[in-house]
Amino acid sequence: MSRxxxxxxxxxxxxxxxxTQYWEGTWREYVRGEAKPQRRSARLGLVREMSKGDAKHxxxxxxxEVNSPDDxxxxxxxxxxxxxxxxxxxLPNRKYSTRRDMSHTYKLYIKSELGLRQMKSISRESLQLxxxxxxxxxxxxxxxxxxxxxxxxxxxxxxxxxxxxTNNKVRSVDLGQKPPHTQPDLPTTEELRMIEEALPxxxxxxxxxxxxxxxxxxxxxxxxxxxxxxxxxxIVWIRxxxxxxxxxxxxxxxxxxxxxxxxxxxxxxREYKKQFPNATDDDxxxxxxxxxxxxxxxxxxxxxxxxICKRLxxxxxxxxxxxxxxxxxxxxxxxxxxxxxxxxGHASIATTMKYYVHAQxxxxxxxxxxxxxxxxxPAKSVEAEPNSANxxxxxxxxxxxxxxxxxxxR
Length: 410
Known about the structure:
The protein is mostly helical and 410 residues long. It has helices spanning 52-62, 64-67, 79-89, 96-114, 124-138, 142-161, 189-198, 203-214, 263-273, 297-312, 319-332, 337-344, 349-356, 361-376, and strands at residues 10-14, 22-29, 38-46, 229-230, 235-237, 241-243, 246-248, 258-260. Strands 1-2-3 form a 3-stranded antiparallel beta sheet. The protein has a 3-stranded antiparallel beta sheet with strand order 4-5-8. The model is unreliable at 388-410 (pLDDT under 50).
């Protein structure tokens, strides 16, 4: 690349029609990966509205950033071209679930509108309009738009890291006001017992009971191996998770705790293990028909849980709502918040309280009764205190004396 030089630029008239003639500013700009600077131009304004001097002044303002000693040349690479590099440089270091979701999100929402554009030419304004269209055109939920922004921002951040851009413009995008968070309806304990009874004996029922007793994430229960269970101590270690049939490490370091399970579940697991007399410590607790892979929790949800809930006319239950029920039951029964956080494998107790603990009607009504009792208590009889030495008695305002008038101000 040639040595960078100060750019004064050149201004000239363009067009023959007096009404539409305009000033054009031209300059040369250094581009990453190119040996020589490239010619650039910009329309500065109509000739009938500004003088040549005004046009030169406007061009100098445009070139201020180009002439800055801190300015670094940006690459003409398109978003699609960098995405292919991103797939090689970054995605291999991400969990399988993240790689799959990020690729799906890019192809579904980002590629069609921004993929062919040069990354350096994608302005903050065009990014804001892009996210506004996501809201208006598809009526996407706030959480989905937040995910698109997070993934696109990650792409731009790595483009800056590897020298293709100088800044991440995605960070300035405004998604608007976040809607109030609403908690999904939780199944009652009685409804969960009804589901349990409706499931066939064996692997499917045991899977459901284990999910109830552990409050684990959907992918953590099928990834359990017999060596992860200490039935003597009533402890389960979460060491793996499964997503779309692929085994991976747990979500975070906090997601790999030892979980204490109830004695009732321990006894059921002991009975269940008798069905696998030849099972080794490395075998899955809930194997598929081949015995070499774990059961797919999505199949159990679609083929059993959802049809059962529909047939019984009870609250729609998923593995996530079962996890919410677990957290809420522990909180409602006075389990310390720190213990609850550890049991659920959350990195932050705020996550536990905000998303996984629901206010039950019973507790809410009790809170209302507490306030009601306080409001209903009769007031204590108190003798009227004598007037302050600094204030007069309160008198009829038609009599002339002001309420609270100081003695020295009459």
